[in-house]
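Weekly sync, protein design subgroup
Attendees: M.S., D.O., the rotation student, P.L. (late)

Item 1: inverse folding check
M.S. brought a backbone from last month's batch and wanted to see whether the design step gives back something sensible before we order anything. D.O. pointed out we never logged the input encoding, so this time it goes straight into the notes. Structure tokens as presented (304 positions):
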């Protein structure tokens, strides 16, 4: 398995580069929800936790469900303050998740073959930048890569340490074609695509057909998430979602990141892409993307 994994990685790099020093942007996308919505949700959790914690501190009584005519009494201070602190802590952790999540949502992937590095640009910089530099230089904060000197939102990681945790770039596209084939727009699916879909289903594992595409870097515990699902209207002549559903999708999804890396010259096809879709992910090549980042299914093996 390891030999096949390395061979696929070698083929993927060669497929993406023609010269040793060519820089290639292989993915562009946006977060599945705009950053202000994440921060607003996090603030709601924190404020709700503070409000409920103050209520517990001042008015928590025991027993909660009195029997035999017993009158509830105000709980002892140690219990009230402990429960209030736990409530505030739990709500703060939930709020921190929404604040931290954009820093793990990939908006651009750039391959730097000359150095063997992969640039992972996210929707927001890592919150660790607020810590002292003496802390961020420790190995714990370097597991997910080092911050690029030219872009605070981009992390540089060794390409050999990145693999797919679940999902597939090609599989996300095949899922949309499959939904069209099973729905009322099946006539819009060409015969060649039906054959390709059948071949994909025969060779793909269930881990390639997940709704989310996630990348993991080395020993980092938290994965990076990518938006990989295309719009059906961009694949086939079908109308885009309309009404409340279409409006909600347009209002919720973040815009695709079309910023160029330093010194990068985009191809003509890449330059035309922003005019086509505002919030749809873009891949240089979906099949080669999966080849460059093979799926590591070892975490799914049953332990004996």
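Designed sequence read out in the meeting:
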């Amino acid at each position: 398995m390891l030999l096949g994994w390395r061979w696929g990685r070698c083929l993927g790099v060669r497929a993406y580069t023609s010269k040793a020093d060519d820089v290639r942007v292989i993915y562009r996308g946006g977060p599945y929800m705009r950053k202000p919505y994440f921060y607003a949700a996090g603030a709601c959790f924190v404020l709700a936790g503070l409000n409920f914690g103050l209520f517990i501190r001042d008015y928590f009584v025991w027993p909660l469900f009195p029997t035999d005519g017993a009158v509830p009494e105000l709980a002892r201070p140690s219990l009230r303050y402990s429960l209030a602190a736990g409530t505030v802590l739990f709500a703060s952790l939930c709020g921190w998740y929404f604040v931290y999540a954009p820093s793990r949502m990939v908006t651009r992937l750039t391959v730097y073959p000359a150095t063997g590095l992969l640039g992972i640009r996210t929707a927001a910089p890592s919150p660790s930048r607020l810590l002292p530099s003496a802390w961020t230089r420790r190995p714990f904060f370097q597991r997910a890569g080092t911050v690029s000197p030219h872009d605070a939102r981009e992390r540089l990681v060794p390409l050999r340490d990145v693999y797919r945790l679940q999902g597939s770039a090609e599989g996300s596209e095949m899922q949309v074609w499959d939904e069209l084939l099973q729905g009322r727009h099946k006539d819009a699916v060409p015969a060649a695509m039906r054959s390709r879909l059948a071949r994909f289903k025969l060779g793909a594992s269930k881990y390639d057909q997940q709704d989310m595409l996630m990348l993991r870097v080395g020993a980092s515990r938290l994965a990076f998430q990518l938006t990989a699902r295309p719009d059906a209207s961009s694949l086939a002549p079908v109308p885009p979602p309309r009404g409340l559903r279409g409006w909600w999708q347009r209002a919720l999804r973040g815009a695709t990141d079309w910023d160029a890396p330093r010194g990068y010259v985009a191809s003509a096809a890449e330059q035309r892409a922003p005019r086509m879709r505002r919030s749809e992910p873009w891949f240089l090549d979906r099949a080669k993307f999966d080849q460059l980042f093979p799926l590591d299914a070892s975490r799914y093996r049953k332990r004996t």
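Discussion: Residues 37-101 form one domain. The chain is about 40% helix and 15% strand.
Action: P.L. to compare against the previous round before Friday.
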